[in-house]
Amino acid sequence: MEEKEKNNKEIEFGTLYDINKNIVKQNEIKLNEGVLNSKKEIVKNFIMSKPNDFYFMLLCNERKDYTIFDFKDYKTPEKSLDCAKCLIDECLANRGEIRGIDLTKDRDAIEIWMVIDNEAYVYYFFPYDSGVIFDF
After folding, report:
1. Would you say residue 5 lies in a domain?
2. Which of 15, 75, 89, 131 is the most exposed place for a label (fewest CB within 10 A)?
3. Residue 33, in any domain of the structure
4. Is 43 left (phi over 0), alpha (psi -120 to 50) or beta?
5. Beta-carbon neighbour count of residue 73 at 10 Å?
6. 90 in helix, strand or coil?
7. What is d(CA 92, CA 98) in angstroms, rounded to the nearest whole number?
8. 136 residues of the chain, pLDDT tens digit each
9. How many domains does the chain fold into?
10. Residue 136: inside a domain
11. Structural domain containing residue 50
């Protein structure tokens, strides 16, 4: 019985997040400029699809990295594209390699995969009006 136990190997997979982190780190490549431009359209359309939301958050909980955007004056297609450019070109590109930008399955956020200092992280970009308090 002891010998049989020695031959059994434990395999630890971790959480689904850990698995996705490894997949992104090992298999996904940095998005090139052409792909990033198409992703800016996704972000623009996402912002435009939320006409009653004016504040958005970029969140990576694992890194404790939170950024709030005020887009209340940016609900035209041209200005929403400017917001998308700001998010991707200024807020994400300076953090690390962008490896993925896609709408979540339920379409209520944008999931962004980054590799920073050789480690993969997920960021979420979503409406955050409920987190901004004013006029009380």
Report:
1. no
2. 15
3. yes
4. alpha
5. 8
6. helix
7. 7
8. 455 555 555 445 678 888 889 999 999 999 999 999 999 999 999 999 999 999 999 999 999 999 999 988 777 888 888 999 999 999 999 999 999 999 999 999 999 999 999 999 999 999 999 998 877 6
9. 1
10. no
11. 15-131
Note the Cα 48 to chain centre separation in Å. 18
In the structure encoding, which two tokens stand for residue 12, read together? Answer: 């630890």
**Residue with token string 């962008």:** 98
CA distance 49 to 54: 11
Token pair listed for 108: 């209520």
Please give the structure tokens belonging to residue 73.
Answer: 């004056």
Helices (H) and strands (E) in the chain, counts: 4, 5
The 3-state DSSP class for residue 55 equals: strand
Tokens of 28: 């996904």
Give SS3 for 118. coil
